[in-house]
Amino acid sequence: MTNIEQKVQPATTHFLKNKEKYYQWLSELVAIPSVSFEGFSQEPVYQCALKVADLMKEVGLNHVQILEGENSLRPYIYGERIEDPQKPTVLFYAHYDVQPPGDEALWLSPPFQLQDRNQRLYGRGAADDKGGVLLDLATVDCWVQGSGKLPVNVKVLMEGEEEIGSPGLETFLEKHVELLSSDMIIIPDVENYDQETPGITVSLRGIVPFEVEVQGYKQSLHSGLWSGPLPDPAMSLCQMIASLVDDKGNIALPEILSMVDTQKKSVPPFDAQKFREEAGLLDGVQFRVPENHIKESLWFEPSLTVNAFQASSRQQAGNIICDRAWAKLSIRTVPFMEPQKVFDLVKAHLEKVCPFGLHLSVTSEGFGDWWQTSTDHKAFQAMQDSMKRAWGKDPVLMGCGASIPFVQSFTEALGGVPALLIGVEDAETKAHSENESLSKQGWEKAVVSCIYFLEEVSESFSSKSSSRGDFSS
Amino acid sequence: MTNIEQKVQPATTHFLKNKEKYYQWLSELVAIPSVSFEGFSQEPVYQCALKVADLMKEVGLNHVQILEGENSLRPYIYGERIEDPQKPTVLFYAHYDVQPPGDEALWLSPPFQLQDRNQRLYGRGAADDKGGVLLDLATVDCWVQGSGKLPVNVKVLMEGEEEIGSPGLETFLEKHVELLSSDMIIIPDVENYDQETPGITVSLRGIVPFEVEVQGYKQSLHSGLWSGPLPDPAMSLCQMIASLVDDKGNIALPEILSMVDTQKKSVPPFDAQKFREEAGLLDGVQFRVPENHIKESLWFEPSLTVNAFQASSRQQAGNIICDRAWAKLSIRTVPFMEPQKVFDLVKAHLEKVCPFGLHLSVTSEGFGDWWQTSTDHKAFQAMQDSMKRAWGKDPVLMGCGASIPFVQSFTEALGGVPALLIGVEDAETKAHSENESLSKQGWEKAVVSCIYFLEEVSESFSSKSSSRGDFSS
Fold first, then answer.
1. ipTM for the complex shown
2. Is A304 within 8 Å of B225 when comparing Cβ atoms?
3. Which residue segment(s) compose the domain that B173 sits in?
């Protein structure tokens, strides 16, 4: 047994003895339908916050407090355990709000009732991100109960509005920057590479969503009595949208593409057939890119999607010229695309191609930043070593095609500290869909990784100076 | 007073004395909500049929009978008055079913309660086509009550399923061709040229409606986790639809255009500004064609319209790649476009351009024939003369951009007899919309026109031979 294994043993032993207690906590958290979406009661969100606060106290965190965010029913919960001001401080984040259950008829067991089937725990939020909440809490509990104290200082922040885009996070961070001050952030809200391989996510795409509407008439018109001399807003919108891409679906605006970082990134080997099955591609449907380029495309290249298009509707389709047509699109962005500039270019293009003087509106309710991190900081090595110990396998340094807009704000607000995006999810998790589930094995390995990680950090950063810079390698 | 005016005087005098009685009948018909659409009770449709049958008897028609169509609750009503087998026979058609009321909140008075405001009668079906039903009945009544008999033989057929596309008409006509045998048909179901100018519609566009769906996935996908390597069915559908037209919105398939009759047709002078106002064009929205070409385009040229497009929906728009996208389109056809060939060409084109092996479905539930008539038959001169007497103005020989698919079947079933499409509607009628109305002045002039018309026919066709051909000039 190495020195580090001896040091973590009390904590890991405590974990092995108490797993069922943690699953019981998860079950209690899942039972509270803390859906943060408008149109759902926000009372359960607040009840869930209270429950999280109780658990924070139970695992030995101090100064546990409920801090108001944008909406007092979706508060932030903060707790800390400062063992020694000279030691480094790790900030654990997670969110306790969840997505709506979706189509309840598609769930094999009730969404808000945690059910164990084949070593997976099914329920809304079981993984995203109540599994993350429990990961943070179990890590602290195992150290405090097993060893009597943590090897580093720990701060924990849980939020209740992540699923609606964390609208209050930036303001909250500004207000509480001193309280949250730390040397690194752990964000357990992404996937592992696969069920057997851990991952650390080192880049996220951003998002520039926008809505387009063209209108020609005060009301829809009978297509027999009017079509021919009059423009057709629905057709015009099809043409305008089609002009944004080439015939392969690649963004066709050179000024947007000129911003993209074209440096080659490393991508691990990859099973295209499995990807096809997970995506649910119908027979014969082809990829847009060569199979060996799929992950590059997904992680590191921009893409444009028509998320929704509506002109009249399938239910009410009649022989009309639609007075207006509307679509929602989004561009997933990568380094170093400037979201405002991307939007301005798209808008200028649509204005240029909008025909017949149709009234055009192009709007966006805000952008999500892309994010990428250097892995030079010692914390990344510490996490890689810890994961290898827990999983028996080196983690993959992954990209992620999705956006977590707050990561950029979070690290910036705390002065550019490293963020470690890790996960309790895997490809089978189906976060946001029906039958969301947590792999027990994956979650347990994630906890053991974090137990090791705190010890690794303690040893890597053995003497803390007053300058944050010293924690970088 | 000319000879013909002397002959019609008893009938026109009867009309002037009995207008209020006819409006009372119209009021009683409008009070029956005879909406033939699925999802509405069909009991009122049948009640309306009984009421029409009663009125047919009251005006002096014989052999009034209720004949089953496709659906026994939407029957055909037939009546006749054969004055002299040697005289020509005029078949009057109309339909007693109506459109749904639409948004009842937009009606200024209850839709099924006829209300007189500023010399217009408001109510669902007041014009389309209970105003037509009354036109037929009043014409017969005035002759029979005023002169004791009609100057020609008259047959009257009223149907109750026109607003749902007359699904049973063709079968019905086949079955009852002998009963309906006549020398010409009067179909009062179109507009006059404007409120002061009568019109005879001599061409109708046809319609080739079709639905297109492309599907790529078993379910919609998170656009962050999947977009880039995967095709986007909603974008592909935009591109496919855009490829059907050029940048001016003209159909871009040369094989379709090669079928179109390019002979120049005559079009009356025309007020483009008024057309703009009636269409409700927003400020600055331009026509697709030069202003002096608007009526040609509308009446005599094909057009393609995207009637509806749906991928996800405005209400539920999320950051997804839609598993599928759907659209309904239609092509308005003109002589000599073959509908099946038009559909086959469109389908073949969409199959050719559908990218990435997306699953494509292109379907149509049937076509509506275009129709055009020569005006050489004496009946047209008779109607023009009659209208000039009633309105003090020559009628316009009009085209109509809309489709009335049964006109072609109707005339064919009766051996190619001429069809006279006239109207009680005008631009203010808003048939199918809320606040449908009938111009009292327009309706009264239409009745007087028809009273004259029967006498004109009687005189133009003074001796009937056994051959139908003799009635053509």
1. 0.89
2. no
3. 3-204+370-462
